[in-house]
Design goal:
Distance between the termini: 46 Å
Largest sheet: 10 strands, mixed
Number of helices: 26
Oligomer: single chain
Helix content: 55-70%
CATH class of the largest domain: Mainly Alpha
Shape: elongated
Structural class: alpha/beta
CATH architecture of the largest domain: Up-down Bundle
Strand order of the largest sheet: 3-2-1-4-5-10-9-6-7-8
Radius of gyration: 30 Å
Number of domains: 2
Number of strands: 10
CATH topology of the largest domain: Na+/H+ antiporter like fold
Length: about 725
């Protein structure tokens, strides 16, 4: 094989640029028209291909796409990298957890939604004229491939339509998506079998058996071993790797390994990429930033080129007439409508809901295009059949949004659905989930740092969570300082592990200043940062210059603790609440702690300038509705953890004194205060009331500081 010459490289760059720019431009047009962007990207290739440009201006078409093997293979290889990235992203977005709530109904819908289209597709493929087959001897393989093409749905298109219509979390939306997930998973398994048979070149029991065994072995390994291994890899990368975009790199690497394995055992690389995405999606350490980066690269670059390339291969002029296309399209739509609506009716859904499910499942979108290109590359489809399947994918995707919107416009929420949506809304306010939490604890000696390590240990005791104990340095190689940090680490680690924390790591970092080193480390996508109050002489209330700089620059919550001899674990927690987001954050942390340790928690809301103290909420006319709402939200949140919170309303001219009096009278171990930092030049300042409580509280204190914008990586 010779090296590419300059002309081939230039032609490849021109082809890529033309396909990419036109695909993105037409994607924007489709988005403005309320359609899926994949349609515009596919149309870009069709316009640039032999169907339009090749017909209207053959000279220009052959100048851009002269059929040179070198540059053609380059753009083809790039397109296949794109489809692997797209299947990785599809698997990542395949939330298997959705099936827990709609499993039985989704299974019924999916079963009939696959069975009827598969049977109708197989019969259609078996009866197709011989001119539509690559070889008359391959009719059985052709019929099996058509059956699979009829059965599959497009989860990405379905999900996008549901998101655009704000239906993703509705019961019916979850049913459509859950059935689509089952459809795609079973469809890819069937496609892997058919692709394996096509690769073997013959259909016999021996080849079929070897393919089935390979698929079962691969999926069994992924389910029992691979999934756990992927979770550990993602956690290790998130905790230990310092390179930029490490999470996304790990995802792509895992997908490529799985693609290599499935390609090597004869069931095609795309199946391995899809399963890799499903496994990675199960990891609690999959960061939103990593998912976003993968989406940007895939949806923004690789997928448009792949879909444009797929359209480029379509030759509409190869169609011998519209009759077969109309029959194929009719069978595809009718099969899905009958199968899915019948399944939904059997599961107890109304006619309108059943038709909505069937319409939603009818979208083939990008998955239909992938199936078509796979069939063309394997030599199963002719150019004409390839064009027919592509047109079917376009038409079904175009029909879905308006029909689904019309059918769902008259479907009202059920009482249990309304309750579930409200519960999810409450849980969405959690600052971070214990599952997969990544917490940073600043090293230090004394009771303040030990309380910080204890709180972090309780909130990070999930098997997939991790706690990093960090020591900042200014660059000098101080042996005494290292020994001191090692001793502090062992102490703090033992405190964290006593709470059940399993993954506790030791890290050091250096910069020009201690504060700069801590801020630099805090940018590594931690969910929360824990620090003991400064013990340096001259520091006011709770923290000095180092913690001041950390709070001013951190993008995640910072919890600063001050201990005055409170026993661990804490038994009684008092959380003053104002209803503000930063106050809710502190109360949420208290709820998570109380749930894990069986501690008692009291939430108190103080009415200012009132002379009456209300012990209990119900039946008190003087209690304002907004006060009831503030504490009701806390009770609802605690109810999700089967936890009871003592909620009280108090009144006083100085709310801070009321809180302190209650903390002392109730013998509370910890006062949990949510605050927003106020700008100062040298020290932490949270306002006069918080300052008063910090000065005068006789129990341990945890100050939960919300950044200006709280973001969960």
């Amino acid at each position: 094989m010779t090296h590419l010459n300059e002309t081939q490289v230039l032609r490849f760059l021109a082809q890529f640029t033309l396909l990419f720019v036109s695909a993105r431009a037409l994607a924007d047009v489709m988005r403005r028209l309320g359609q899926a962007t994949v349609i515009g990207e596919l149309l870009a290739g069709i316009i640039l291909g032999s169907s339009v440009l090749g017909h209207l201006s053959p000279a220009v078409y052959h100048f851009i796409f002269p059929g040179d093997p070198g540059s053609d293979h380059l753009i083809e290889a790039l397109a296949w990298i794109g489809v692997i990235m797209l299947l990785l992203y599809t698997g990542l977005e395949t939330d298997v957890g959705i099936l827990h709530g709609v499993g039985r109904t989704a299974a019924i819908v999916s079963s009939l939604g696959i069975l009827i289209p598969w049977m109708s597709g197989f019969l259609l493929g078996w009866e197709m004229p011989a001119s539509y087959l690559v070889s008359p001897q391959s009719r059985l393989l052709f019929a099996l491939f058509i059956a699979v093409a009829m059965s599959i749905s497009a989860v990405p298109v379905i999900a996008k339509i549901l998101m655009d219509m704000d239906l993703m979390r509705r019961d019916l939306g979850m049913l459509i998506l859950g059935a689509g997930i089952l459809d795609d998973t079973i469809g890819w398994i069937m496609l892997a079998v058919v692709a394996g048979l096509a690769t073997h070149g013959a259909i016999d029991l021996r080849s079929l058996g070897s393919i089935v065994i390979a698929i079962v072995a691969f999926m069994s390994f992924c389910y029992f071993i691979g999934g756990k291994l992927v979770v550990r890899i993602m956690r290790w990368v998130d905790d230990r790797v310092l390179a930029e975009h490490a999470g996304m790199s790990a995802m792509v690497g895992i997908a490529m390994v799985c693609a290599i394995v499935t390609q090597a055992i004869g069931i095609h690389a795309v199946f391995g990429a899809f399963i890799a995405g499903v496994m990675i999606g199960r990891s609690a350490r999959l960061r939103k930033s990593d998912r976003t980066e993968l989406e940007v690269v895939t949806v923004g670059v690789f997928a448009p080129v792949f879909f444009a390339y797929s359209g480029l291969k379509v030759d509409v002029l190869a169609l011998h007439g519209w009759t077969i296309l109309a029959i194929f399209l009719g069978v595809a739509i009718l099969g899905k409508l009958l199968g899915c609506s019948g399944g939904a009716l059997l599961a107890g859904r109304s006619w309108r809901e059943s038709l909505a499910v069937a319409v939603g499942m009818n979208a083939r979108g990008g998955m239909g295009i992938i199936v078509a290109l796979l069939g063309l590359s394997l030599g199963v489809l002719t150019q004409e059949m390839y064009a027919i399947i592509i047109v079917t994918a376009i038409v079904t995707s175009l029909l879905t949004p308006p029909l689904l919107g019309f059918l769902l416009s008259g479907v009202e929420q059920r009482p249990d659905e309304t309750e579930r949506l409200e519960r999810e809304k409450i849980l969405a306010r959690l600052p971070f989930a214990k599952e997969g939490a990544k917490l940073l604890v600043l090293a230090g000696g004394g009771p303040h740092a030990q309380l910080a390590a204890h709180l972090a240990g309780v909130l990070g005791n999930h098997p997939d969570a991790s706690i990093t104990i960090f020591q900042a340095t200014v660059g000098e190689n101080d042996v005494a300082a290292k020994d001191r940090f090692d001793a502090q680490f062992e102490t703090l680690k033992s405190i964290a592990t006593l709470t059940g924390a399993r993954n506790v790591y030791q890290r050091t970092g250096s910069a020009d200043t201690i504060a700069e080193a801590i801020v630099k480390e805090s940018a590594r996508d931690y969910d929360a940062i824990f620090a003991g109050a400064s013990q340096a002489e001259g520091d006011f209330a709770i923290g000095g210059e180092v913690l001041h700089d950390l709070v001013q620059n951190a993008l995640t919550p910072v919890i600063i603790t001050r201990n005055v001899g409170a026993p661990l674990p804490l038994r009684r927690i008092l959380a003053p609440t104002t209803g503000a987001s930063f106050s809710r954050l502190a109360t949420t942390i208290g709820v998570l702690y109380a749930h894990a340790t069986k501690a008692a928690i009291t939430a108190i809301h103080v009415q200012e300038n009132q002379l009456i103290f209300f012990r209990h909420l119900p039946g008190r006319r003087q209690v304002r509705n907004e006060d009831l709402q503030i504490l009701d939200e806390i009770q609802q949140l605690a109810a999700q953890f089967e936890l009871k919170v003592d909620t009280q309303v108090a009144a006083g001219n100085r709310p801070e004194n009321t809180v302190l009096a209650m903390a002392e009278r109730g013998h509370f171990d910890l006062l949990l205060i949510g605050v927003m930092p106020r700008p100062t030049e040298q020290r932490l300042y949270f306002g006069p009331r918080v300052e008063h409580m910090l000065r005068n509280a006789r129990c341990a204190i945890a100050v939960v500081i919300s950044p200006a914008i709280v973001t969960r990586p």
